[in-house]
Amino acid sequence: MTPTAVLAAISKKIRARVVEMSHVAETPHLGSSLSCIDMIVAAYWAALRIDPSNPLDPNRDRFILSKGHAATALYVTLAERGFFDPALLETYNEDGAVLPEHPGLQCVPGIEAATGSLGHGLPLALGMALAARIEGRPSRCLVLMSDGECEEGSVWEAAMFAPAQKLDSVTVMIDYNKWQATGRSDEIMALAPLAEKWRAFGWDACEVDGHDFDALLAALDKRPDGSGRPRAIICHTVKGKGVSFMEDDNNWHYRIPTAEEVRKARVELGQPEVRA
Amino acid sequence: MRNAFAASITDLAAKDERLVLLSGDIGNRLFDKYRERFPTRFYNCGVAEANMTGMAAGLALSGLRPFTYTITPFATTRVIEQIRVDICYHNVPVVIVGTGSGLSYASLGPTHHSCEDIGILRCFPNLTILCPADAMEVGPAIEAALSCPGPVYIRLGKKGEPVIHEKPPRFEIGRGLVMRDGTDVCLLGMGTMTAVALEAAKLLAAQGIAARVVSMQTVKPLDERLLAESFNRFPVVAVVEEHSVIGGLGSAVAEWLARSGPRRGMLEAIGTPDAFISEAGSQQWMRERCGLTAPAVAERIAARYQAAR
After folding, report:
1. Nearest CA of chain A to the CA of B121: how many Å?
2. Beta-carbon count within 10 A of B82 CB
């Protein structure tokens, strides 16, 4: 397994690239992307059984970025993980290019579902988990959702179905950064207590620091466990994580960083060489 | 038609191991035989159609061939975004089956009517729309759907509809089925209204008007060759459907007609009005109210034919 210090270094590199892409392509959702990068890195470098050279292997684990607005985090991860040439990232959001602001199905190798509209990822993953069970494949399904996304009714339809079918091959990671587009996620809707909600629906729920790789890896480990209970990992995160002047400032849901802000961010992230 | 669906889907599941049936807590006992034979390929998804529809897409993304089954408005308009994004955008072979379409569940009220489903679904790229006319067409329809590489919506009636075929007919996606030919007018029947069109043709024959009747088994893609031939040949071509005159087969044909240039034939679109029918009543009573009975259809077409001559 990759040591956590290595994972932390990978995260910093991805964060720097994501900040830069937001600037170059003038696309929003930077804070939302930064908050879940550690979760994605933990999944892709330590939990998922995947082979970038055989991205459509039927026995692979599935990862769905249900909060599709964090697409840049996934694109850079897949490129870093070897699914496609990182040079392709230069074309992000260009007219006619293959990498739009929300991921399309197999728009690059490794993208398992088209997301962008919230509340779709978990039902898709349950279907994939059922398919694996029907066909006797070992695939595990991992879904990364946002906290605001938990306001969608379809999430709770799926949450009620999975334990009924004992789908313990499914794990949900919730990026609980406490913000949604226009305000605090605990104020706009009665989201808290989030872990208790999942527990009440029959899930094996736990709460971790979503930027602590040891905690993330422990929470992702040993699944499925034969318990019949799907797992929900409530990841307490910081929106804009890794860049001091973006952290927990919800303006960065929509704001685009200037060239100077990109430079500062890259210095903070230990990646001072500016690419764009 | 729903019994024919249950029997056919059971036969098909025996032939195709990829087939998975998802039901939205409906069809009590209907799928007993299927469940007995294929317990690992049946899921009652509860009263949670959004999740059912999304899961179907997930199953299809993994290479299986899921069918979703529930009452038409809950299989379609309730989950329109799941159909659009999860199924049509992914372009995966999910078969959405709506039972009790149109005014089949008349007495249950407008919550259970579906006279807008095709109007909405027809806009979605990649989706094929099939409307079998009777129980005999159901088996061939789902077989055709299973052979289709993309998503399909099948619009079924309920039960006890008139059977218009002696044996299962051919069902080819994108082609209408000529039930009887004539020389004066053409009736394009959609789904269970094809039986009404056939009855209307008999009444027209008694008045000396010879009618062609077509079962328009596929609403999308349209059988444009058949449409061109019919509009070139007949002064009146009527669509008869248990769907709103906005958005249904009549609209689809009107759009095609506007695109394809002037033709000899005039379009007579006969469907349900742009209104919710909130009174209690049977399907037959509502058809009478909407002018969707054989005598009403025959009368309209005869008048149009006389005017067009």
Report:
1. 18
2. 28
The three-class DSSP label of residue B19 is: strand
What contacts A123, CB < 8 A, 6 or more positions away? Answer: A154, A157, A158, B50, B51, B52, B53, B54, B55, B57, B58, B82, B86
Task: Give mean pLDDT, residues A13-17.
Answer: 97
Residues ≥6 apart with Cβ < 8 Å to A3: none
Domain chopping of chain A, boundaries: 4-268
Is B39 an interface residue toward A (CB < 8 Å)? no
| pLDDT, average across residues B145-164 | 96
CA–CA dist B290, B273 (Å, integer):
7
Name the pairing type of β-strands B218-220 and B128-130.
Answer: antiparallel
> Is A192 within 8 Å of A165 (Cβ atoms)?
no
**Which residues of chain A have a CB within 8 Å of the CB of B93?**
none
Q: Could you give the ipTM of this predicted complex?
A: 0.96
The band of B261, judged by pLDDT with boundaries at 50, 70 and 90, is: confident
Q: Is B58 on the interface with A (CB under 8 A)?
A: yes
pLDDT band at A1, cuts 50/70/90? low
Q: Measured between alpha carbons, how far apart are the two ends of chain B, in Å?
A: 39
Q: Are B119 and B103 in contact (CB under 8 A)?
A: no
**Partner-chain residue, chosen from B58, B62, B63, that has the shortest CB–CB distance to A123:** B58
**B-chain residues within 8 Å CB-CB of A230?**
none
| Backbone dihedral angles phi then psi of residue B111, each to the nearest 5 degrees | -60, -30
Contact B116, B123 (CB under 8 A): no
Q: Give the CATH number, domain containing residue B208.
A: 3.40.50.920
Average pLDDT over residues A69-89: 98
Query: Considering CB atoms only, which of B46, B62, B85 is closest to A120?
Result: B85
Homologous superfamily assigned to A4-268: Thiamin diphosphate (ThDP)-binding fold, Pyr/PP domains (3.40.50.970)
pLDDT digits (tens, 9 = 90+) for B94-128: 999 999 999 999 999 999 999 999 999 999 999 99
Tokens 């903070």 belong to which residue? A268
**Do the bridges between strand B218-220 and strand A183-184 make them parallel or antiparallel, or are there none, so unpaired?**
unpaired
Backbone angles phi, psi at B253, to 5 degrees: -70, -40
Whether the CB-CB separation of B40 and B17 falls below 8 Å is answered with no
Gap between the Cα atoms of B26 and B57, Å rounded: 20
What one-letter code names the amino acid at B268? E
Q: How many CB pairs under 8 A join A and B?
A: 100
Residue A104 tokens, joined = 């399309």
Our count of domains for chain B comes to 2
